[in-house]
Amino acid sequence: MISTIAVGTDGSDTAAQAVAMAAAIAARYDAEVVLLSAFGEAGGARMDADPDEVQWAHSPAARVREVLTRTREDLERDGVACRVLVDEGDPAEVLVRLAAECGADLLVIGSRGMQRRVLGSVPNTVTHRARCSVIVVKTAWMGAS
After folding, report:
1. Mean per-residue pLDDT for 73-94?
2. How far apart are the first and last CA of the chain?
């Protein structure tokens, strides 16, 4: 069964959709949600990166923690048991590692808003490396009608 649902978030609209999906699943299974996030060093973002994708590549630790605190409070207000894990490093690697550390049965991530990397996107890396099942929440592409 599902008792622990990890969800990657950075405060973006895409991440909010992933959190909403995780919360809905948690309510169905009476599971705990673990909010996961990564932050990088200052100046780590590529100059040519899509602005919607920069959030994962370069978010100061204080901003990330504030977003996570606000999200945790919202979930708890809605009756969802929740905790937070955050660490510095490559977003995909951090999400996979933290999901394993918290014993996640399921990891939920958004399909956009994450730094693209030379060998693939964060969702691609996470789906291939996570030890648990992964749901990638399909989010709207910019300019789509």
Report:
1. 95
2. 37
The rounded distance, in Å, linking the Cα atoms of 111 and 93 is 16
pTM: 0.80
| Other residues' Cβ atoms within 10 Å of the Cβ of residue 55 | 24
User: Is residue 69 within 8 Å of 37, Cβ to Cβ?
Assistant: no
- Is the predicted pLDDT of residue 99 greater than 90, yes or no? yes
Look at phi and psi of residue 35 and say left if phi exceeds 0, alpha if psi is from -120 to 50, else beta: beta
CB contact at 8 A, 56 and 86: no
Count how many residues are written for the chain: 145
3-state SS class at 81: coil
Main-chain phi, psi angles of 144, to 5 degrees: -75, 145
**Rounded Cα–Cα distance for residues 98 and 127 (Å):** 14
Q: Which of 81, 82, 79, 99 is nearest to 38 (CA)?
A: 99
More confident of the two residues 142 and 105: 105
d(CA 103, CA 34): 10
Which neighbouring-strand residues pair with 4?
Answer: 32
Alpha-carbon gap, residue 1 to 70, rounded angstroms: 28
